[in-house]
Design brief:
With 462 residues, the protein is of the alpha/beta class. It folds into two domains: 2-200 and 372-460, Aminopeptidase; 202-256 and 302-369, Alpha-Beta Plaits (2-Layer Sandwich), CATH 3.30.70. It contains 13 helices and 20 strands. The protein binds ligand BES and manganese (II) ion (2 copies).
Length: 462
Amino acid sequence: MEKVQSYIQDNKQKFLDELLDLLRIPSVSADPKYKEDVLKTADFVANSLKEAGADNVEICPTAGYPIVYGEKIIDPSLPTVLVYGHYDVQPPDPMELWESGPFEPVIKKTKLHPDGAIFARGACDDKGQAYMHVKAFEAMIKSDSLPCNVKFMIEGEEEVGSDNLGIFCKENTEKLSCDVVLISDTSIIANDVPSITVGLRGLSYVEVEVVGPNRDLHSGVYGGAVANPINVLSKMIASLQDENNHITIPGFYDDVLEVSAEDRKKMNEAPHSEEQYKEDLDIAATQGEAGFTTIERASIRPTLDVNGIWGGYIGEGAKTVLPSKANAKISMRLVPNQDSHTITELFQKHFESIAPDSVKVTVKPHHGGEPVVTPTDTPEYQAAAKAMEKTFGKKPIPTREGGSIPIVALFEDVLGVKSVLMGFGLNSDAIHSPNEHYGLFNYYKGIETIPYFYQYYAELKK
Ligand code: BES
Ligand code: MN
Ligand code: MN
């Protein structure tokens, strides 16, 4: 291990320069105008794996963006770790809020990252975190100390729902056979408070359209006599939560697994300052479901949020118009044992049922995903905990997080294996937002920690 760690120390600048090159390629999976760049990113990742020492590196085509695969099988009798990550990123919009170009990485110091952080789209989610695994692997290979088998699967469609990865997994169960999936695509509580993610929320995502009159109308001539789709949509959306911020869709909570009082107590002992939280976001008050704390609201409780809403006139000045239609994108975060398909159906039925006769409503489902909770009494959790304790000097805290990685539930169903969610980002790293960044401390800490995971995992599986 000494050799591995000194290889890392000796190559810090190289590891950083390479990541910056990776971040310069705008691999936005949602927007077809970046198609060539997304493909270029797959090439970059494949080459990195080859140079690091992986065998059988392949750029596996799919109906969408390719999946990069590579492996190092040193002894079939040893355990196999499957590393999963994604090389695609979220769109950079709104562009005008970036202080530097989203694909022109720069390093700047911040309050939480006094050693500097890399500012770029994908720095934290997930290029920076996925690349830590390639570099940790390189360090183990170059110092001849890989203690078990590794397979890499880095996809390019996580931010658009991983549909093709699901198919790929089903068609390649043999190739992907492994003992555990290792993922860095989540957060730690703080740089001095390590944590391991033991739960993720699921997701049901729908788009709704409310159509009123067959054309835009003069809001004076017709206003008051004809339903305004924006007014109607606003009322419908407002009715989806009651005064306790409880979701009103019948059956919505039926399958929610209530967390025990003991587990809730434990989860609320994790360091959290409500004052700091509000200050960071510049809000005077938090809000959420009555009877639950901020930590609980953002992890063990389901939610309903409007992600976008549009319609009518939004140009300069005033235009008096009663619009013909209004639209919204709505996401629901789900917890065990809610099922995304069931929830989407319940939403659809309810939303259609509350529409007044004056409008027509359609609900279009988008991608979804299932929630997961992972156990802590497994060799993989123990190995991750030991590895973090070694490099942070503190035992990590198990936490449930609010975000979603739908493929994790699929790994359980299709490959029959659990995942370890050993991420190194901070919730304040602005993933999906302008000025996304990733701490240098976090990048290097990840690279240093991962080899310990392999070592302890190989030992614990003996
Ligand atoms: N890495 C995130 C998920 C995440 C972030 C989990 C922080 C825990 C903490 C992932 O890339 C992501 O953004 N997932 C999407 C879902 C996907 C279907 C678009 C999400 O959570 O919105
Ligand atoms: Mn991610
Ligand atoms: Mn993401």
